[in-house]
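Exercise 7.
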Amino acid sequence: MTDMEKRLLWIAMIERLQFMVLVNSVIYYRLNNNILSDHEFDTLSKSAAKHSAEKHSRWHYVMFDHDGNSGTEALLGRLHHADWVYLNEMAQLILSKKPEEAWEF
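Solution. The predicted structure, written as tokens, is:
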């Protein structure tokens, strides 16, 4: 694997973490539901926060100063309209699945 491929894979993994934080925030704050326990979400959020400065991530404009603490509802207010629509649709898709299949897409 080349250095460029490793870098692209790393960015994809960071984007996945950030996406999971954002979509779970939509599920919790906007759809009044949850699929993760508070502990699971805190762990996920802190993992994503470690990489919030990654400027090549799709979600950098939302997550750039995320520190892993609660308050992810405020991040949703930063979303561009198209990203809000996308995350809302993905949240509804996730909620329509069985819990053990929620992240299979």
